[in-house]
Amino acid sequence: MTLIATEKTDARRTAVQSAGENPASATSPADSPSAAALNAGTGTVVPPAPSAPPSQPAPALKQAPAVTAQIPKPAPSEPEPSGAARTQAAPPPAFYTKDLSVFYGEKQAIKQVSMAFPDRQVVALIGPSGCGKSTFLRSLNRMNDLIPGASIEGEIWIGGHNICDPKTDVVRLRQKIGMVWQRPNPFHKSIYENVAFGPRYHGVKSKAALDELVEECLRKTALWDEVKDRLHQSGLALSGGQQQRLCIARSIAVKPDILLMDEPASALDPVSTAKVEELTAELKRDYTIVIVTHNMHQAARVSDKTAFFFLGDLVEYDETNKIFTNPSRKSTDDYISGRFG
């Protein structure tokens, strides 16, 4: 009995020590082997201690539904255009030529030139003497009709009308397409009458309307302040530069859509040339301008597009900046760099 009691005591001590060392793995006395031996040793049946019901996992806390900021969806955008639709259509030109040829008798001066002139821009025509640029310019308002033996083939379209049609009213046409010549050619009339002549011819009879129109045109050509106190003096009494600006005022007095200029500053001094160039830049707000010039610097200064003519052919036609910095044709580069012409 002493031996059994000692074993019981040792077993109990061992169980307690084990529980203290590893509480997580300790079992209840009733369930352990030592406890079973103790019960058997006493001969008393001790019912095992009721085991605790298996622990139920704590109910998971209900999480509040996540609050997500409701970002409004953008309105569906229109599908992006593709291909050619991405490129905005270029505005229609003010006028254009199609396969235009000009002959003096049997000699062909212009050879099937097709060009489009953008609205409210300045186009410069350049090339060596005799290349046909002035002939081409004069054909644009049928001025070549006045030269014996001159004839035109091809088409010139302005406002949906081919002005090469023999039925075209050339007087009406020249009202819509004004012309400024190389040398100033004022009428042998007063400054006032030089400007008022065209509107009066086309039906403006009111003195007040003519006064207003004369002042408006002289202001547009930066001439008003110089001549307002001598409007009834002869236009021939003006300086060369003033005469040329008077001729420009006379041209715009009849409200043209297009203004043609054939070397308008070639006979002027540098100061007058600068004024004509400044005037050209101002006038393109209201008119499409085509200018012939031998002055490469002038073409680069005043024009938006430049066309290079040589021996009656249109060699190259492009933006002025490209023509003067990176021309596509070698002959263009040779001309503007002074290798010929």
Give a structural overview.
This protein has helices at 2-21, 33-42, 133-139, 170-176, 191-201, 207-220, 224-227, 240-252, 270-283, 296-302, 320-325, 330-336, and strands at residues 95-104, 107-117, 122-126, 150-158, 161-162, 177-180, 258-262, 288-292, 305-310, 313-319. It has a six-stranded mixed sheet, with helices on both faces. Helix 5 (191-201) crosses helix 6 (207-220). It is 35% helix and 19% strand. Helix 9 links the parallel strand 7 and strand 8 (288-292). Mean pLDDT is 81; it is low at 1-9, 14-50 and 59-87. The N and C termini lie far apart (141 Å).
Kindly state the number of beta strands.
10
- Calculate Rg over CA atoms: 50 Å
Major sheet details: 6 strands, mixed
The structural class is alpha/beta
Strand content: 15-25%
Tell me, briefly, the overall form. Answer: globular
Core attributes:
four-stranded antiparallel sheet; 19% strand; alpha/beta; globular
Summarize this structure briefly.
The chain has 341 residues and is an alpha/beta fold. The chain contains twelve helices and ten strands.
